[in-house]
Amino acid sequence: MLPMHPCAPLRGDASSSRRSPSPRTVRLAAVGSAAALLVGLGAAGATAAPAPPSITLVSMTDVHGHVLDWDYFAGAPYAQGRGLGLARVSTAVDRVRAERGADSTLVVDNGDAIQGTPLTYYYSRQEPVTATGAVHPMAQAYDAIGLDAQVVGNHEFNYGLDTLAKYRLDLDAPLLGANVLDDRTGAPYLRPWVLREVTPTGGGDPVTVGILGLTTPGSAVWDKQNVEGKLTFADVVETARTEVPRMKAAGADIVVVLSHSGRSGPSSYDEAVTPAENVTDRVAAEVPGVDVVVAGHSHRDLPQAWVDSTATPGKRVLVTQPYRWGASVTVSQLELRRDGDGWALGDADVQEIRSADVPEDPEIVDLVSEEHEATVAYVNQVVATSTQELPATESRWRDTPLIDFIQRVQTDTVRAAVAGTPDAELPVLSIAAPFSRTAVFPQGEVTVKDVAGLYEFDNTLQAVRMTGAQVREYLETSAEYYASVPPGNPADPESLATGQTPDYNLDQLSGVEYELDLAQPAGSRVARLELDGVPVADDAQFVVAVNNYRRSGGGGFPHVAQAPVVYDQQAEIRQLLIDAAQESGTIDPADFAVENWWLTAGGERLFD
């Protein structure tokens, strides 16, 4: 279990978790004006009136394991203009500190840090830091940058609580999570908030900034196998209502909320069961005392927005959301005004620094060089030879061998696992989705990165028992991905999607034959559903292989979250694919490719 922080936050000198400007940073500041370093970051003209005192908040979110600007699947830097990663963020942070003053600047991270790239996978699963005792590479990078606080995102729970505990101990900054509760005690499992004393520009009394951490309750759904019976995720808004007054009573002049939650919009799970997923705007509007909210989770690039407070009429709350993967940071200049003996937020202005516009920090590059090289070596390991090129390009509109490879491995794994059980005689179906449009097994050598590029997520394999009627309803939900196609009209593959459903929610089924008639309205598109040429009866029983995200309710598919579980050995699907390729040594579609589903319009098949 993860050690619980004391609930009572400590008033701390901001410099205790934030590095001072290095000689290299000072040198950067000396080579040109602040405006030359960061165009538009509020440099005042010589004749301008004195600026009011202010502090600066630098925010990042949803970094997802991107330390270096390196695509491990492509074996190259990301495409020009898409610069990202903590090494570039570090340069931006140094430049802001050089311009604004290190003692006047706070740096925060809004969660989803330790999952998302082969680097973080490797040090969680292949050479786990929990076993080696090595410092987590993400903690190394964040510690070098110097954070004042970080909140847990939902993906912090992907690798289990032991990995989270190790990361938390490696991280110099406090890891916050006020609404993450320990089931044994009912108390916060992580530190709820922290106070930082920051020096306003121009000097004067320090301003006390309270930083509250809140995370989406969806982890109770998506990582149920890791948190069930251990953690409860309380309602974000209600938790903020409780904690903000405590922060103010402890001396917070300004309240910043790190909200690993989308600004608004529907959840990807049943909100009747779990508190709402995307509530950042509600925190800003409904919780008295909140001044600034950092949003995240939704991977949107929304540097500045103002939300009218309903809790305090006439007040506006700043909401800032940087772009994901360290592709940007937002730099919020928070102007201060006197409020009795303390400070209050006056106005605010936000600028965004795109990571593509700054170079990588050589300190960060050097810091993780060994971990980077170990990860590169791992992803370039050859696991098999493919008899032909197998691309994912057409997987959204036709049955392709590449997806069938996933289906066969999942089916074989589950069939072997249920042998000798009461479910052994049931047909085994498998569900998979086209996660990547660019995945490909090249003809010839297939490497770990090729397989990882096909299955991008760290899902585990489970299996449930479902009826024929439930399978049909499940397919109807998946078919909502597609737009309508009138009979007799030529279908354009690139225009088939409505755009309302992501590719990873386009579930495809193996083990039965079916047609989806896109001339029919959504909800009535499964035109044929057969097993060995015989229509599937509503009361037929199946074992269905599915990933843990879907089985836990992710995507909102019917029945699967409530279906009886018949297999769950915590086996990672990506590793099962790698193991299967290594065991056979050859990837030949003749061994696993079975065309079993088709798109139609008015009964006529499309894309034959």
From TrEMBL:
Could you confirm whether the keyword Hydrolase appears in this record?
A: yes
Q: What biological processes does GO assign it?
A: nucleotide catabolic process
Q: Which domain of life is it from?
A: Bacteria
Which keywords are on file for this protein? Hydrolase, Nucleotide-binding, Signal
Q: Look at the named UniProt entry and state the broad enzyme category this protein falls under.
A: hydrolase
> SUPFAM superfamilies from the entry?
5'-nucleotidase (syn. UDP-sugar hydrolase), C-terminal domain (SSF55816), Metallo-dependent phosphatases (SSF56300)
Question: Mind telling me which GO cellular component terms the entry cites?
Answer: outer membrane-bounded periplasmic space
A GO molecular function for this record?
2',3'-cyclic-nucleotide 2'-phosphodiesterase activity
Q: What is its EC number?
A: 3.1.4.16
Provide the residue span(s) of the region labelled Disordered. 1-23
Q: Where is the Calcineurin-like phosphoesterase domain?
A: 60-300
| Record protein name field | 2',3'-cyclic-nucleotide 2'-phosphodiesterase
**Organism of provenance:** Kineococcus radiotolerans (strain ATCC BAA-149 / DSM 14245 / SRS30216)
